[in-house]
Structure prediction request, 413 residues.
Amino acid sequence: LSRFAELGFPTTKHEEWKYTDVKSLTQRHFNPVRSGSAVGLKASDIKSFTLNIPKAHILVCVNGHYSKELSSVGKLPAGVKMGSIADAVKHDAGLVERHLAQYAKHGDDAFTALSTAFLVDGLFVHIPDGVILDTPIHLMFVSTGDGEFVSYPRVLIVAGKSSQAALVESHVHLSAKTYFTNVVVEAALGENAVVELDKVQQDSLEAFHVSSMHVHQQRNSNFISNAITFGGGFVRNNIMAVLDGEGAEATINGLYLGTGSQHIDNHTTIDHAKPHCPSHELYKGILAGKSRGVFNGKIFVRKDAQKTDAKQTNKNLVLSDEASIDTKPQLEIFANDVKCTHGATIGQLDEEALFYLRSRGIGVDKARDILIYAFASDVVNKIKIQEMREELQKILHDRLEQSRVFIKESSTK
Prediction:
């Protein structure tokens, strides 16, 4: 907390926050949520948010606190542990202490410092050496209640040597409208571990969402992230992956769809600390209404990280005159035998393609949806769980319908 007071909330004078003003967040008074906020909720209340993931182990946090009653964990292989991070601190103190707050350094970021200061509960997943978990793990964060409140959920994922696991992190809301979620995720991948962590964010359009994911990878590990942002009025997503072992590989993809007055800021950093480490990154944005998007992607190659192969792409569709995007790809290379590429594009729908579809008897709204979905499908189709992928397609269509309303409103004005 002292470090947070020293840092203070960032301003637009900070390079990392140049395009995102936090005044709308700092001028509000958010009350912290105590445990017990899940009282009265039933499994049926959150059934529509399960993303149709078959036979998933479901871990539920309500307003940042683990709910055993709403969670549903099936039979687990020997040694696998998942549940409340507060319980893990009590029963697996040694394991937790080796990893908790070791990758998300509170001295570097004010929001991480704030999260660590108020760390009370969250979710813990441990996959032991050599265990291949066939069933996905769904980490569900539910915001519910009246008034303006804040939650600080924490997630710690520890994947042992040669282990494999697929996880889904989702953020949803019931009755809540204006609230602040400050979530920090730490993932430690052992040698040869394979972890996929997909994120689907469907917060209220009046909510504030700040997320920081810190991934630490050892030799020959493989990490995959597909982050889909639909909700939130003010959104900041930070993803930082450190490839700290030779042969480690990271794939980081994202899709953000902004409507109304949403502000969605994605900051990614891939730190190539050791040689022979490939990384792949694709982020796509679709912006309508008066929404604003920000993308800042940094590839950092250290002096000894020879034979690095890094690719980064950011593409954006701006669908209305009042929507905007600020994109800033970055390369910082201190090695001399590398192959690194990056590119960013900003544009509108292809008029020729739109005309072609309309000439085949397809209405303008349907033609527009087809082109936008084709643009977005690069990221959506990377989701490996078929049922989840199909559910996201439905959500995407609903959001496109909503964005069409904002486009027409903007055109009228």
